[in-house]
Amino acid sequence: MLVERIQRQNDASVDLGTVRSPSIRWFPYLLLLPSLGMICLIELYPFISGVSYSFHKGTLLGRGAFVGLQNYERLFSSPDFYHSLWFSFIFALFNVVFSYLIGLALALFLNLDFPGRGICRVFLLLPWIVPAVVSIVSWKWLIADSGGLVNILLSDFHLGPIYFLSQGNWAIVAVIVIKIWRSFPFMMLSLLAALQVIDKSLYEAGRIDGANSWNLFWHITMPHLKNISIIQAILMVIWSINDFETPYLLTQGGPSNATENMILLSYRYTFGRNDVGRGSAVALITLAFLTVLATIMMRQQRQRA
Amino acid sequence: MLATSITILVSPFGSQAKDHVDVQFWDMIWGGPEYIDAGKALVAQFNEEHPDITVTYRSVPWTNWYQTFLTAIGSGTAPDISTGAGYQAVQLYDQDAILPIDDVISQLKTDGKLDDFLPKTVDVLKYKDHYVALPWAIDIRVWYYRKDLLEQAHVQPPSSWQELKAAAQVLTNSKADQYGLVACGDTLGSHWLFTLMLNNGGGLFTKDGKPDLGSERNLEALRFLSDLVKSQFVYPASAGYHDEDELSAFSQGKAAITIHAPGLSGRLPKIGEKIGVLKPLTGPHGEQGTIAWVNNIMLYKQGKHPVETKEFLKWWSEHEKELWTKGHVTQLPVRKSFAADPYFQGNAETKFILENYIPVGKSTATHDTEIFPKLNDVEGEGVMQTLMQNILQGKDVDASVKSASERLNSILED
């Protein structure tokens, strides 16, 4: 009753406003103008500027001469570009898959009722809370040297030392594992929040119908996690492909450019080589790649819904 | 009223207000806090001696230094004068930002003061027929060794490549996590390559400035390093190491020989007395050489008071010895009169480097005779770092050089 009365009052006030002053319709848009202007300034201008730079032979000092598609052509003929594309892809893929699986397992675990659950949650959130510089430098101490804890343990079992940051393949593994370690708490937290709103009566009904634990998980839990999972996957892909700090702080893209993703390549071209045009081209290709990926995933989400 | 106006105009304050000039001096941070204090004190001394000029001292950190200067130039707020690394003057000269100092050099020559500079240090900053900066310090790479480790192993300090390899073999005991050499894969790692190539009479360029990484002498040097790596005489984590990791391994005694900038015993005071400097190694063809840079002090076209700034430049160049004696810069002076000072002659490490390494120092542009802006892109883009990382990972030298040459060509063609 109360809701209906408020609704009627709102409708009446809107009608009244429309009758008294038709120009008031523009007022909300006028109020939005400062925000729109700010968005254009901080988002649209850099984007258009970046697009423009990618068609010029620019340096950090100026836009330079117009070169058409030359920056893109040179990128597509560069092995460094294809390597960074490949590394960005596997970096994102492994990170999304494993951080999701670990996050899901831990979320299911933390959703159980047991003593010390709160402490467990805080402890498991630590990789996400600790500043990247601190956690990555700490990892470096653990794995880079023969004196690091990981290598001491490996040596005790006659498996090491392995110089994780000094061989290309091991460096790729190390960067991915550390990224997963930094990412799973976000997955865990979001999935735990989604798990906690699932109606318990659904499980009770399932059990009465004779469903086992796997059936309950597959037919009740997972469908309820579907939407959040897709959003998390999209976010994690974007964050992985845009990740600068993990590979930069750990390996600076080395050794021999083995762990150089698209963002590091863009950084190297722009600031190392003073080639802003090609750096912008890499950044725009990354953006296009992410946009396509996000669109496909969103469309799939809508179709399934 | 008229009398008051005349009094103001002729008074010393009126005159000072009319002629007084402000000069902005941006100095890179070349040392610890004591360096900045020494720089400020020198500027204060200049200001006291020159009441018509006020120089304002600003310390500029190395992080994003190029962007800092480019942004200032782009926005019309460049300093009147600044110090900078080896290629800064030629880089910014090509951006039309640097004021040549041909007249200063001519005057120094006329006054007989140019002879005080170490050979080649002034001419290396001549670019496109103009002197674009005055040299103020030399950075160079030096072979260091651990005296205690060599004594324990009964090894004499090596003086040639052959002896280096033999010493590294004796000093290596992988089971005890001890190796002959430790290197790194960052910029300092690339200096290893330059040092060995220049030592062997090679160089990154031909005399006419064309890339020449694949020359026989260069390949011989790179294969020598690769041989040391494949023989497991180089600390195995080196490819992933940075400068500070290399120093850490050296100070922990995990390796006995390394390459570094001067002043290592000061940087590692706990083992300072155990650190020695090797003689410049003699290569297989009897040559010596190492990589060296001449750091710049340069004027900017946007400066409003070039006459007064040049006066400050000359004064600074003649008085900057305190940057070492009080500021403890680890780089070496370019003036012979400074180098003869007891501060340098009383330090065995510095004296040895001045006498033995400076004469064999060569630029990254070798065999080209002058430095050029693209050298900065070559360093920034990391071609040589990647090559060093490849060699330290035991990858094939010829394939790595081929790939690096392609990247080098691509940078130079841009």
Describe this protein's structure.
The complex is a heterodimer of chains A (305) and B (414). Chain A has 305 residues and is mainly α. Chain A has one domain: MetI-like fold. The model of chain A has no long low-confidence stretch (mean pLDDT 87). Chain A is globular. Chain A has 13 helices and no strands. Chain A has helices spanning 2-20, 27-54, 70-76, 79-110, 117-129, 132-143, 149-156, 168-196, 200-208, 213-241, 245-250, 262-272, 276-304. The longest helix of chain A is centred in the N-terminal third of the chain and has 32 residues, at 79-110. Chain B is of the alpha/beta class. Chain B folds into 2 domains: 17-139 and 293-360, D-Maltodextrin-Binding Protein, domain 2; 142-260 and 382-413, D-Maltodextrin-Binding Protein, domain 2 (3-Layer(aba) Sandwich). Chain B is built from 20 helices and 14 strands. Chain B has helices spanning 2-10, 12-19, 33-49, 65-74, 88-94, 102-110, 147-152, 161-171, 187-199, 216-230, 243-251, 264-267, 306-319, 322-325, 336-339, 342-345, 348-356, 374-381, 383-392, 397-413, and strands spanning 21-28, 53-60, 81-84, 98-99, 126-127, 130-131, 134-140, 142-146, 179-181, 255-260, 275-277, 290-300, 332-333, 361-362. In chain B, the strands form 3 sheets. In chain B, strands 1, 2, 3, 4, 7, 12, 13 and 14 form an 8-stranded mixed β-sheet that branches. In chain B, helix 9 (187-199) packs across helix 10 (216-230), helix 9 (187-199) crosses helix 19 and helix 19 (383-392) packs antiparallel against helix 20. The longest helix of chain B is centred in the first third of the chain and has 17 residues, at 33-49. The radius of gyration of chain B is 24 Å and the shape is globular. The relative contact order of chain B is 0.17. Residues 1-17 of chain B have low confidence and may be disordered. The A-B interface holds A 57, 59-62, 74, 80, 144-147, 161, 163-168, 171, 251-252, 254-257, 268-269, 271-275 and B 64, 66-67, 70, 73-74, 95, 177, 185-186, 236-241, 245, 249, 252, 254, 376-377, 380-382, 385-386, 389-390, 392-393, 395, 407, 410-411, 414.
